[in-house]
């Protein structure tokens, strides 16, 4: 098992990889070549307890954490109710809201994926079976440039669930598309032949069926774009 993290321009990148043929050293080499003229200092955390301690220390010292790659299967830290990388990522998000979080997993079960989506809303979600030496640097580079990325296996699991368990119709998609164009909810009746209350009920149902009713309109649009629903 391998794990790593590194600092970029006084900010910290945290990584955790397990059970994958690419070694930590290979990731370091790939990242160093991907992001030119950058000095890296690496930090290793192969358990949730070590990662938690690192986050706490960094937060107390007002030290930035810009991006974190977290394995969902990271060993738990029961004392802080962190039983997987999902809870660890959620805790990191609470301390560092602007940190780019990339989750890694070998799972393709929707219940696990949806839990991570709801708790963390990651900037990247990658099945370790989907990455190799060629694709990994490009993925990280795109995330650093502000794009969100779900790997093929993750997207397929989400779309399979949506196709089997949701009944989104043309009006539902029209609502999401209009929201993606920055049309406010109160303005939607101008484009859709429904009352505002009916539209709000549909929007709540869309959120509930796809991820969670608690997500914002922007997060709904982002999710639909990530999973190529729109």
Explain what you see:
Helix 1 crosses helix 5 and helix 7 (170-180) packs across helix 9. The protein starts with a strand and ends with a helix. Strand 5 (100-105), helix 4 (110-120) and strand 6 form a beta-alpha-beta unit. The relative contact order is 0.10. With 230 residues, the protein is α/β, with parallel strands linked by helices. The chain has 9 helices and 7 strands, in the order ββαβαβαβαβαβαααα.
How many extended strands?
7
For the biggest β-sheet, the strand order reads 3-1-2-4-5-6-7
Q: Share of helix among residues? A: 40-55%
What structural category arises from helix and sheet content? alpha/beta
What kind of sheet is the major sheet?
A: 7 strands, mixed
Order of helices and strands: EEHEHEHEHEHEHHHH
Overall mean pLDDT stands at 83
Shape: elongated
Termini separation (Å)?
38 Å
Question: From the alpha-carbon coordinates, what is the Rg to the nearest angstrom?
Answer: 19 Å
